[in-house]
């Protein structure tokens, strides 16, 4: 068994165990999104070889280079964009990713709506909430979240299924996970992308439906 395969199996076991002991045990087990951004290709190939198929990327261009050929080979891949999306990259993103998790402003939402059609690959979207109101971080501020969610769903007719967040590094993540869950519940959104290598177990206890893990699987990025 390779190191990558062993790491994925260990994390999947931890996800299962934490979920079963949480208050959300009756719901589906959270999905592991293997964060492949800036990782070497041979590490990604190890994960593919063991049968793992759900990956998260930060940049459209890097993802295109890595995945455009692999998509032809592995027809069960699920690719998620988990990094910021520039408006001039929307068309490429919609053709590549199954899920885009980072709708974070009105201009981007409108651009996605305009470029959406029956041919695009992206079927579902998440809205990114800036739970810590950090000026350097992308995302909708919590107080504006309800109006923005309504705008995306009702006005733009976007298939918004969930929310995502990245808590501030220097704060207890649990209060941010609790806030995201609260916003999702009152807007009837079922999916919560929250929790990374250092805090994914806490995120699961607060209702995460997917966790984004890179370094625990692939090691530190170059």
Question: What's the end-to-end separation, in Å?
Answer: 24 Å
Total beta-strand segments: 8
Task: Tell me about the largest β-sheet.
Answer: 8 strands, parallel
Q: Which spans of ≥5 residues are poorly predicted at pLDDT below 50?
A: none
Using the coordinates shown, work out and report the CATH topology. Answer: TIM Barrel
Q: Strand arrangement, largest sheet?
A: 7-6-5-4-3-2-1-8
Write the topology of this structure.
Layout: H1 3-20, E1 31-35, H2 41-49, E2 54-57, H3 60-67, H4 70-73, E3 78-81, H5 90-96, E4 99-103, H6 106-115, E5 124-128, H7 142-155, E6 160-164, H8 173-186, E7 191-193, H9 200-205, E8 210-213, H10 215-218
Parallel strand pairs: 1-2, 1-8, 2-3, 3-4, 4-5, 5-6, 6-7
Short description:
The chain is α/β, with parallel strands linked by helices and 222 residues long. The chain has helices at 3-20, 41-49, 60-67, 70-73, 90-96, 106-115, 142-155, 173-186, 200-205, 215-218; strands at 31-35, 54-57, 78-81, 99-103, 124-128, 160-164, 191-193, 210-213.
Q: Can you characterise this structure?
A:
The chain is of the alpha/beta class and 222 residues long. The protein has one domain (3-16, 28-218): TIM Barrel, CATH 3.20.20.10. It has 10 helices and 8 strands. It has helices spanning 3-20, 41-49, 60-67, 70-73, 90-96, 106-115, 142-155, 173-186, 200-205, 215-218; strands at residues 31-35, 54-57, 78-81, 99-103, 124-128, 160-164, 191-193, 210-213. Strands 7-6-5-4-3-2-1-8 form an 8-stranded parallel beta sheet. The longest helix is centred in the N-terminal third of the chain and has 18 residues, at 3-20. The two termini are 24 Å apart. The relative contact order is 0.15.
